[in-house]
Amino acid sequence: MSDHPRPRPRFHGRVDLPEGTPCGHPGCDQPAEFRAPASNRVAGHVGGWQWLCLDHVREFNAGYNFFDGMSPDAISEAQSPLAGWAHVVHDVNGYKFNDPLNALHGKFGQDAFAGRRTKAGVVLAEADVRALKVLGLDAAASFVTIKRAYKALVRQFHPDTNGGDRSHERRLQDVVQAYTHLRSAPAFKTA
């Protein structure tokens, strides 16, 4: 025989608690080995945790209903393949972008999106940044500013306001394309 203690069967979620920690279920004298939310309506990190034995954590899990208390529309939205990705996430470092798993922050670091965030904190696509540059603007521009710059540049480059001079026609086309892009860009979309 070996002096090593016999390994306990492994179950996902088993936590080593101090010896003698009782199960949190009323009337149970088994040792607590598993952590579960105190309520099935509130996440454990918000509403607190309870410590249960294997039988009672199984009972808790069997009665757990993620959709409990949700409206039919909220249930449908939660079941969508895009659930969680459609909402802007506010990162603790000040970023605001669609990255609920915080996968980009670790890879790119804090200055990854410098110069690409709007005043609201939304990270712009490269095409949005290029279009703003054509209009002589940066990421901090509002849609009102974009519209004002567009009108000024059209007046500047249009042949009708330049005595028929068509030498700026290519630049005018770039301005029109940039404005058309920004008008339909999600970051600047107007109702």
UniProtKB/TrEMBL annotation:
<dbReference type="Pfam" id="PF00226">
    <property type="entry name" value="DnaJ"/>
</dbReference>
<protein>
    <submittedName>
        <fullName>J domain-containing protein</fullName>
    </submittedName>
</protein>
<feature type="domain" description="J">
    <location>
        <begin position="130"/>
        <end position="191"/>
    </location>
</feature>
<feature type="region of interest" description="Disordered">
    <location>
        <begin position="1"/>
        <end position="26"/>
    </location>
</feature>
<dbReference type="InterPro" id="IPR036869">
    <property type="entry name" value="J_dom_sf"/>
</dbReference>
<dbReference type="InterPro" id="IPR001623">
    <property type="entry name" value="DnaJ_domain"/>
</dbReference>
